[in-house]
Design a protein that fits this description.
The complex is a heterodimer of chains A (about 180) and B (about 80).
Chain A: E1 2-4, E2 7-11, H1 17-25, H2 29-32, H3 42-52, E3 53-61, E4 67-77, E5 82-89, H4 97-114, E6 118-124, H5 128-135, E7 140-151, E8 154-164, H6 165-182
Parallel strand pairs in A: 5-6
Antiparallel strand pairs in A: 1-2, 2-3, 3-4, 4-5, 6-8, 7-8
Chain B: H1 9-19, H2 41-55, H3 61-65, H4 70-79
The chains are: A alpha+beta (about 180), B mainly alpha (about 80).
Amino acid sequence: MELIGRGGLVPLNANHLGWLYWLAVSGDGAWNWRWRGHHPSPEEFAARLWSDGHLQRVIVDSSTGRLAGFVQSFNYDPVARHAHISAILAPEFRRLAWPIRSIQSFVGSLFDDWNLSKVYMETHDQNEGQFKWGLRQPLRLEACRRGHISIGGKLLTSKTYALYRDDWVTAAHRTSEILNVFGRG
Amino acid sequence: MSTESPVPFHTFAAAIANYFEIQDLLLDGETLLVEDLGFDSIMYLEIVCLLEDVAGRPIDDGLVASLRTVGDLHHFYISLKPR
């Protein structure tokens, strides 16, 4: 397990699928994650996870062992050096710092270990605030499609954001600067 | 936990201002995070993450969210450092 403070990242395995399926299709998870309200069967869900996923990690609360969320990259293009990411957190772990740090660590590994130049994320009107909160990094709007997706009977604007490597490095440098002043633990 | 001494208020405030790109406002201990600096949940999250790195351990998000002024924030920061 890769530990980032209280959060841990572990590779997805078959034992996680039942919990992850529940997370993806229950509550607002169904609206906000990649299926956008479509409820796949467990078999379809598992097949798609493995078919287009690039890196997939389950976020674990290392203090209790509870599963907290999931983050994955997909549509990986090694030539253009980009990929998409999506993430979901169980309701009780949203708005906490440590799961977000796990997601950020995952994104950092895409830049550092996979040499990506940018990472794409998609969101929509109802999810944008939480989405930006969750990534806590400078995002650039790359595409905006008005009334593009239907969720719960409403047509919502779909947006594609990108996080660029240079922006990521700049943000990391800024963090390093302030920690040099404050003193690291 | 860091073995370095905590920085004094003016250094701490200057670092906060630089990090959040706060210009045209001189921070003092009474400067309000939300009302004066426009702190939102993202900025509080950033502070939690920074302070966790300072402390070298997880800290309670709720404690940080209850801080109202830059002075409160500095006191909290000092509480994370060894005396």
